[in-house]
Structures are given as structure tokens and as C-alpha cells.
């Protein structure tokens, strides 16, 4: 493949784009199983290896696409580097919360966070971009607020895992749009920047004897090596698939991962699903139904 994937025709979905996006969403949906397998390793070490082993994968993709010149331009721009540092910090926070939550038996909270995220994006558009909300969007956001209030009342504190994932990913997506590089170049730039502290941390763990890579079992080493694959591959699939699909298609497909995570948490991980969650999750689902109904109507018309 000599060049980056061409954008889809205006207002038109591509089967190739659908395949890329669906692959990304399914991989993200099954990711809790992988995170459970590394739950005995400290989340900070897992995150460091996710970063380090993503670099060669993203680098090879960029070489295949022959778009390294764009990365060189970005590396020479102080403004671009500062923006990339911000997005890199946000995505690392998101990864850290996610890895910790899955390993700590709070997969349901991660599903809730990713269900809320689209509604938070609408709220951000209204607050930061002064976009006007219609009645349906206001109702959807109101229901999400009620759901968070129910969980807060039940637990005696804010559902920080869900809100942390929502805020970190929402602001990451918002600022990522301002990064003046393509999706593949942007991802490589982010992990390159993160690889500096990541490498230092892995070296510290190795010297202090607290690291799991090449130090404990072969399975731990392979799992840490594989963390780069499970991090980079779905992100690259998504980045290329999103360019070949309508925004409404992506908007509907984005609910695949949290739905899968919810089902895995309840039926595989057997996480408790108390009364508060029985109230909060349906409220969020109703809010999302209100939100995506216009998109579904567009599909029916087509």
C-alpha cells in the first residue's frame, strides 16, 4: 500500500471502512479478557509496555504508507509537539484508568464510562464550541446526569472510574482533532513522546528487580509484548476506518465495545449488578436511544 487510504465519497459508506471499524470495535470489546490476564502486573508497568511496543507497530505502518515525511515535519514544529504532549497525556490517563479498573473487577464502570462518552461529547460541543443543543440532546444529557446522581447517592461518592474514562477520552478526542497530522502519524507521535518516560520506568523496574518483563515467567513477557499489538492495531484500524465511513455510521458503531464489555462483566466476570446500576444503566440506554434515533432514521431513509 503506497499511500494512505483515500477518503470515502461524501455521504457514502465504504465496505472497506466498515471492515476496518468493525474490526477495531470488536477488538476493543474483547480487550477486557487481555487486561484480566495481566491483572497481576501493576497497571503502570502494563501501560509502559503498551506504549513501548506500540512504537514499532505504528512505525512499520507509517513506513508502509510512506508518510514518514509528515512525521518529520511534526517533530520540527514546537506547537505540534506541545499539542501532541497534551493528547498523549490524556490517552495515557485513559489507558491507566481502564487497565486498573478491569484488573480491579470494575469492568461495569468502564462500560458505563464509554456509554456516557458520546453524551459528554455533545455537552463539550455546547460548552466549548457554543453549539446549540436540540430538545432531544438536552433530554439525553439530563438522563445521563440523573444516572450519575443515582450511582453517586448509592456509593456515597462520584463514579470516578466511569467519569475519568469519559473525561479523559472526551478531551482527548476534542484536542486530537486540532493536531495537524494524520491519524497514523499522530498516534506514532504520541507513543514516541510517551516512550521516553515509559522506557525510563521500565529500566527502573528492571534495575530495581520489580519488573515482570524477562524476569518472572515467559507468559508475562509474552503478554507484555502483546500489549503493544492490542493497543496499536485497533487504534490504527479505527483511524483508517473512520475516514471511509459516515459520521452517523461511526456514531452507531461506537456502542459495540461498551455493550460487549457490559455483557462480559455481568455474564463472564460475574461482577455485582446492584439496584443502583439496574437504574443507572437503563437511564443511560434510554438517553443513547434518544441520541441515536435521528441517525437510525437516516439509515431507514437510505
What are the key terms here?
globular; 12 helices; 302 residues; mainly alpha; 0% strand; disordered N terminus
Protein model, in words:
The chain has helices at 15-37, 43-65, 68-75, 78-103, 107-128, 135-155, 160-176, 183-208, 218-242, 247-253, 256-267, 275-301. It has 302 residues and is an all-alpha fold. The chain has one domain. The longest helix is centred in the last third of the chain and has 27 residues, at 275-301. The radius of gyration is 20 Å and the shape is globular. The relative contact order is 0.21. Residues 1-10 have low confidence and may be disordered.
Describe how the helices and strands are arranged.
Blueprint: H1 15-37, H2 43-65, H3 68-75, H4 78-103, H5 107-128, H6 135-155, H7 160-176, H8 183-208, H9 218-242, H10 247-253, H11 256-267, H12 275-301
Helix pairs in contact: 1-9, 1-11, 2-4, 2-8, 2-9, 3-8, 4-7, 4-8, 5-6, 5-7, 5-11, 5-12, 6-12
Summarize the structure.
The chain has 302 residues and is mostly helical. It has one domain.
E-strand count: 0
Describe the biggest sheet?
none
What's the overall geometry? globular
Uncertain regions spanning at least 5 consecutive residues? 1-10
Question: What fraction of residues sit in β-strands?
Answer: under 5%
Mean pLDDT: 89
The sequence of SSEs as H and E is: HHHHHHHHHHHH
Amino acid at each position: 500500500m503506497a499511500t494512505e487510504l483515500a477518503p470515502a465519497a461524501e455521504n457514502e459508506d465504504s465496505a472497506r471502512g466498515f471492515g476496518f471499524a468493525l474490526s477495531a470495535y470488536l477488538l476493543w470489546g474483547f480487550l477486557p479478557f487481555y487486561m484480566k490476564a495481566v491483572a497481576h502486573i501493576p497497571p503502570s508497568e502494563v501501560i509502559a509496555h503498551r506504549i513501548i511496543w506500540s512504537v514499532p507497530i505504528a512505525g512499520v505502518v507509517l513506513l508502509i504508507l510512506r508518510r514518514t515525511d509528515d512525521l518529520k515535519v511534526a517533530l520540527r514544529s514546537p506547537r505540534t509537539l506541545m499539542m501532541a504532549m497534551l493528547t498523549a497525556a490524556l490517552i495515557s490517563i485513559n489507558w491507566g484508568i481502564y487497565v486498573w479498573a478491569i484488573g480491579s473487577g470494575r469492568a461495569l464502570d468502564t462500560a458505563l464510562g464509554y456509554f456516557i462518552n458520546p453524551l459528554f461529547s455533545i455537552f463539550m460541543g455546547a460548552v466549548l464550541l457554543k453549539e446549540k443543543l436540540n430538545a432531544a440532546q438536552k433530554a439525553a444529557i439530563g438522563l445521563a446526569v440523573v444516572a450519575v446522581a443515582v450511582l453517586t447517592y448509592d456509593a456515597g461518592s462520584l463514579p470516578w472510574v466511569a467519569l475519568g474514562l469519559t473525561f479523559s477520552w472526551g478531551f482527548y478526542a476534542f484536542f486530537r482533532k486540532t493536531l495537524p497530522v494524520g491519524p497514523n502519524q499522530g498516534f506514532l507521535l504520541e507513543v514516541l513522546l510517551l516512550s521516553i518516560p515509559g522506557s525510563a520506568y521500565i529500566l527502573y523496574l528492571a534495575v530495581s528487580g520489580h519488573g515482570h518483563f524477562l524476569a518472572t515467567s515467559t507468559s508475562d513477557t509474552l503478554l507484555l509484548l502483546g500489549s503493544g499489538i492490542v493497543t496499536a492495531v485497533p487504534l490504527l484500524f479505527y483511524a483508517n476506518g473512520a475516514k471511509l465511513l459516515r459520521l452517523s455510521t461511526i456514531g452507531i458503531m461506537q456502542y459495540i465495545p461498551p455493550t460487549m464489555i457490559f455483557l462480559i462483566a455481568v455474564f463472564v466476570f460475574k461482577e455485582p449488578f446492584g439496584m443502583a446500576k439496574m437504574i443507572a444503566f437503563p437511564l443511560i440506554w434510554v438517553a443513547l436511544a434518544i441520541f441515536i434515533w435521528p441517525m437510525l432514521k437516516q439509515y431507514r431513509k437510505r
